[in-house]
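Support request from a user on the community tier.

User writes: "When I paste my structure tokens into the form, the page sometimes reloads and wipes my input. The last time it worked, I copied everything first. Here is what I submitted, just in case something in the input itself triggers the reload:"
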């Protein structure tokens, strides 16, 4: 708290008034040593003029002064300034002004002059805190006014691009920020996998080509988390606020670079609520109004860039661990093989392929020394590894193109008996496609050399799968897979050259 206060001290100006130079000097030393910004005067009349012509937050003044006593100085100042926070210094208790005067003149505190100024310092500190609170209240009031004024403007604008721009422009002054962006699903895209709309301001006023590539995996995961959990995510550099529509669905996110954590944040939330409802309103109309052809081209490009970024992350994960290189390609292949064997429809097959390719993408967040450790993992390290399914789901949640893949990635380490992670689901609670990927994943792991063992032989692997049926794996799926095992191409030859995501 002290540290925070110290940082904020520079925002406040103190006026020091005492007709004795010695007192001014001692208090000035104290203020300087504690980092305060101040000015001093020995002339009471001059002090009144200084307050009139210059902004001060706090005034410390002597009571017994010539030619004007402190209470008279305050009286004059209160005629034109009610905001100034005033601390009165008194010589002796007997010489203090009556309490009534102190109340009447709205003097916030007084303290006796003494050799050490500990008490004064405490009064100043608590004064600065009150001033800070008053400022926040004023800001809150101003901010609410701004929001109320800007809402009709947002509603009036029809093209979504304009609304996004307007939302950003309105947000900036609320929290004194210069950098922000807004990322929302594009409702006018008729395809199943919705694309996204993006608008940035400040350093995010960049073309869509650059946007995804400037984000790192953690940041993308945070965006996904905000959307998935419908909660604000506070980062060192700013805050991610989900835009939530009236059905409690996430439309997208606003990111604002700011250190605001309290009232400013509340304002951002209020504003985001307004922005969400105006956006969902606009989306209804936009289906008619948006110049589809031109916009679609832009969205397609955005989608492609995002996928390029995700693809790069996937390859990074594969590259991190030489013992699992090609693993995700093969998991995709085996998953698709199982899916075809049980007659899944094309859209599920496509989801399986993507799920296989991306199932371990969350390992981008796992430390290399854990990922590559050759000895047995200690429990804490195992817990760290276990985070990857959730992290992966969050990375993919940043935009809705992967919405069907997300549950599969999240649940690919669940077990039929409920002893898996992250959610301990069991049996049919585990999504079918996740149960499929779990088998493909385990199969490929056993088929591969690992740092701590060579690959298992075929009969051994088959036995492991059958033994795990109903306990770790879905029994029917194991049966379907075991039936086609002999028809699969050699393990080493399996490779997916392209993602097969429809751009
Ligand atoms: Fe995994």
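"...and here is what came back when it finally went through:"
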């Amino acid at each position: 708290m002290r540290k925070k206060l110290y940082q904020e001290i520079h925002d406040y100006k103190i006026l020091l008034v005492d007709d004795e130079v010695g007192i001014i000097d001692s208090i000035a030393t104290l203020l300087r040593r504690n980092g305060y910004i101040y000015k001093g005067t020995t002339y009471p009349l001059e002090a009144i003029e200084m307050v009139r012509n210059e902004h001060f937050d706090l005034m410390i003044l002597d009571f017994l002064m010539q030619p004007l006593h402190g209470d008279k100085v305050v009286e004059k100042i209160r005629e034109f300034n009610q905001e100034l926070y005033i601390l009165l210094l008194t010589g002796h208790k007997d010489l203090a002004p009556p309490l009534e005067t102190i109340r009447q003149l709205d003097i916030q505190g007084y303290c006796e002059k003494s050799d050490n100024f500990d008490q004064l310092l405490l009064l100043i500190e608590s004064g600065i805190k009150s001033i800070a609170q008053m400022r926040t209240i004023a800001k809150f009031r101003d901010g609410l006014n701004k929001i109320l004024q800007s809402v009709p403007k947002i509603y009036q604008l029809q093209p979504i691009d304009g609304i996004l721009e307007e939302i950003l422009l309105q947000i900036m002054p609320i929290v004194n920020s210069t950098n922000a962006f807004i990322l929302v699903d594009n409702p006018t895209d008729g395809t199943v996998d919705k694309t996204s709309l993006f608008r940035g301001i400040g350093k995010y006023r960049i073309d869509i080509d650059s946007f995804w590539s400037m984000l790192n995996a953690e940041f993308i995961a945070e965006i996904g988390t905000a959307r998935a959990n419908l909660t604000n995510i506070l980062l060192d550099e700013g805050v991610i606020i989900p835009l939530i529509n009236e059905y409690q669905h996430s439309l997208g996110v606003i990111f604002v670079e700011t250190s605001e954590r309290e009232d400013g944040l509340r304002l951002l939330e209020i504003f985001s609520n307004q922005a969400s409802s105006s956006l969902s309103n606009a989306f209804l109309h936009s289906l008619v109004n948006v110049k589809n052809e031109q916009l679609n081209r832009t969205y397609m490009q955005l989608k492609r860039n995002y996928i390029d970024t995700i693809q790069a992350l996937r390859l990074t994960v594969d590259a991190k661990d030489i013992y699992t290189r090609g693993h995700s390609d093969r998991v995709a292949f085996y998953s698709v093989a199982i899916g075809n064997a049980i007659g899944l429809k094309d859209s599920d097959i496509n989801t399986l392929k993507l799920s296989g390719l991306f199932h371990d993408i969350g390992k981008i967040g796992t430390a290399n020394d854990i990922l590559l450790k050759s000895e047995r993992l200690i429990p804490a390290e195992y817990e760290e590894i276990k985070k990857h399914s959730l992290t992966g789901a969050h990375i993919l949640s940043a935009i809705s193109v992967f919405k069907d893949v997300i549950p599969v990635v999240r649940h690919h380490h669940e077990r039929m008996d409920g002893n898996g992670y992250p959610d301990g689901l069991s049996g049919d609670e585990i999504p079918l496609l996740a149960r499929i990927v779990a088998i493909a994943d385990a199969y490929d792991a056993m088929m591969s050399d690992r740092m701590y063992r060579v690959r298992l032989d075929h009969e051994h692997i088959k036995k492991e799968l059958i033994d795990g049926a109903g306990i770790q794996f879905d029994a029917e799926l194991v049966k379907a897979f075991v039936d086609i095992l002999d028809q699969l191409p050699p393990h080493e030859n399996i490779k997916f050259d392209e993602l097969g995501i429809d751009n």
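Agent notes: The reload is a front-end session timeout and is unrelated to the input. Strands lie at 13-17, 37-41, 58-62, 85-90, 109-112, 180-185, 196-201, 233-234, 239-244, 250-256. The domain at 321-493 is CATH 1.10.3210.10 (Hypothetical protein af1432). Escalated to web team.
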